[in-house]
Design goal:
The protein has about 375 residues and is α/β, with parallel strands linked by helices. About 30% of the residues lie in helices and about 25% in strands. It is built from twelve helices and 17 strands. α1 links the parallel β1 and β2. α1 packs parallel to α8 and α2 packs across α8.
């Protein structure tokens, strides 16, 4: 049996473990640095059809309908005058069992985790050293516990320490000069929007997104604010949990979003947005990066979770077929999605009135242009 060590029990690590467990020629173990897999309840994620199709291979279509939601459109609004700009029909990419889906992150994590044997995840395992000995890969954890494996799959997130170990240099993500505010809000507090759709509001150096995370009344709310932070502020991660900092972000956001929305936000969290600055390719042919450890995208295309699932599936097929094409194909696709994410982010945050007018006029035309939508979105949503 080939031994596969998966570092990190996030979405990509749990998903590839679900795929690999079907193959009796693999012995797999997930090594998680924390003492549990316990994402915060309430916060949502979006899964476009490219990832739903892959999740359905392990039974995702059987999740309780009350625990997920299928938005029909993305409604674009202007934060300045609170008027609707246009809407994009994302249901055009749906099939019968493959639909654009929003849900709580906890729901997806529990679905992936509960399908695995309890002893498959080994907790409190922080990697301290990686050794390559011929065909074997040695992994050492804290307290000098070590294992050997045939394949090493690294999926421990954007701040992956394991990636730096295999590169033998410190690899840091890049601060995207933005701060995210994440919260939940009741549907009744979101007046003037269609609750069956995703609402995306565009402002000056700010955009917000709200959507239902289930078939009940709870909505996910997130705002992305352009903001410069000093190196000392970025190093002090406790800063983002301090009430003074959160209040300052709420105050800046309120100027455009409005106090009525801000006062109804619950479970508020603030965090700096980091993205990958480059694509790292391991030298060892049996070591792979997936999820945010492979590449973390700007938050403007709702593809973080979807790409984590997609990259994990591609690696699974690569291991199954032994074709060694994983990184070549993935790098090309990653660059394309990254470019489009950065372009979206630029377009969402315009402040010049003339550029805003041009953007809004173009959006009204382009969202109804099937050729453009199939090219711009279809290449991402359809895999």
């Amino acid at each position: 049996m080939k031994k596969i060590a998966i570092i990190g029990a996030g979405i990509s690590g749990l998903y590839i473990a679900n795929l690999l467990k079907k193959n009796s020629s693999y012995k797999i173990t997930i090594y998680e640095k924390n003492n549990s897999v316990n994402p915060e309840k309430g916060y949502g994620i979006q899964l476009s059809v490219n990832s739903i199709k892959l999740l359905n291979e392990i039974g995702f279509q059987n999740i309780n309908l009350e625990d997920k939601f299928h938005p029909s459109k993305v409604d674009f609004y202007s934060l300045k005058n609170q008027k609707k700009i246009c809407d994009l029909d994302i249901s055009a990419f749906n099939d019968t069992d493959v639909k654009y889906t929003t849900l709580q992150r906890l729901t997806l994590i529990n679905f992936l985790k509960n399908r695995l044997p309890e002893d498959l995840i080994d907790y409190n395992k922080k990697v301290t050293k990686i050794d390559y000995e011929g065909e074997n890969i040695g992994v050492t954890f804290e307290n000098n516990i070590s294992i050997k494996c045939d394949y090493l799959v690294i999926s421990d997130g954007i701040f992956s320490k394991t990636k730096s170990l295999i590169a033998q240099k410190e690899i840091k993500p890049k601060y995207f000069k933005s701060v995210a505010l994440r919260a939940t809000i009741d549907r009744d507090s979101l007046r003037g929007i269609d609750p069956s759709n995703i609402s995306l509001s565009l402002g000056s150096n700010l955009h917000t997104v709200s959507y239902s995370t289930n078939n009940k009344s709870q909505f996910n709310f997130i705002s992305i604010l352009r903001k410069k932070l000093s190196n000392s502020e970025l190093i002090d991660y406790s800063l983002f949990e301090k009430s003074e900092f959160i209040s300052s972000i709420l105050s800046e956001t309120s100027k455009q979003v409005g106090p009525d929305i801000i006062k109804n936000l619950k479970d508020i969290k603030c965090f700096p947005v980091f993205v990958s600055s480059e694509i790292h390719q391991p030298i060892n042919k049996n070591t792979f990066l997936i999820g945010d450890a492979f590449f973390a995208f700007p938050p403007a295309f709702a593809q973080g979770a979807s790409q984590s699932i997609e990259v994990a599936y591609e690696l699974y097929k690569n291991l199954e077929n032994e074709d060694n094409q994983f990184n070549i194909e993935r790098i090309e696709r990653t660059r394309m999605i990254n470019w489009k994410s950065k372009f979206n982010y630029f377009a969402f945050h315009l402040s010049n009135p003339l550029l805003i007018w041009i953007r809004n006029s173009l959006m009204k035309y382009l969202v109804k242009n099937d050729r453009f939508i199939n090219s711009y979105l279809g290449k991402i949503y359809k895999n």
